[in-house]
Amino acid sequence: DAGITQSPRHKVTETGTPVTLRCHQTENHRYMYWYRQDPGHGLRLIHYSYGVKDTDKGEVSDGYSVSRSKTEDFLLTLESATSSQTSVYFCAISPIAAGYEQYFGPGTRLTVT
Amino acid sequence: GENVEQHPSTLSVQEGDSAVIKCTYSDSASNYFPWYKQELGKRPQLIIDIRSNVGEKKDQRIAVTLNKTAKHFSLHITETQPEDSAVYFCAAPSGNQFYFGTGTSLTVIP
User: Fold this and answer.
1) Which residue of B has its CA nearest to A38?
2) Does the beta carbon of A89 lie under 8 angstroms from any beta carbon of chain B?
3) Looking at chain B, which terminus has fewer C-beta neighbours within 10 angstroms, N or C?
């Protein structure tokens, strides 16, 4: 597996609380992505980054924000978690945008009660 | 953006039979089409990909075909084995993003 980790791996939180998920890579890849995976919906892009401090929205970005202050770290923040954000979150990295394999992290299972 | 449709959503085959999963896409500029396999509780992993200048690509028991005119591509698994049981996702790019199909749950019955 490519050098990509996610933390935490599991989290249970209450509605209305802030949550931050971390993605860390050791591959020095330029592109980093956050997806959520829900039954019947496959993988849907939340936000992605194309460089330090350069980010853009994906198709399901409402309620989420991201930050990338270093090449190796990409943070996903839920400012005020809702039950609809209960999901499995995957980070992915790639050296090239949308023209090359994406390497996925192990995932974070988030439950919002 | 891209609209990727994947069929079927579930597929059961007897061990040794073939399995075919199909995807269609909408962005005619798309030029790279990967297939990912996701085992239960694991991360998606690339199993094969194809670029738009090629019509077919094979890797042992797995093959992918691409029809750019019709905007569809398919995954073919021959001589299926129980370890092929997993969820398979297709994807197509648009801009800097990938759009994934909704997945096909393949079950290989021993």
Assistant:
1) B102
2) no
3) C
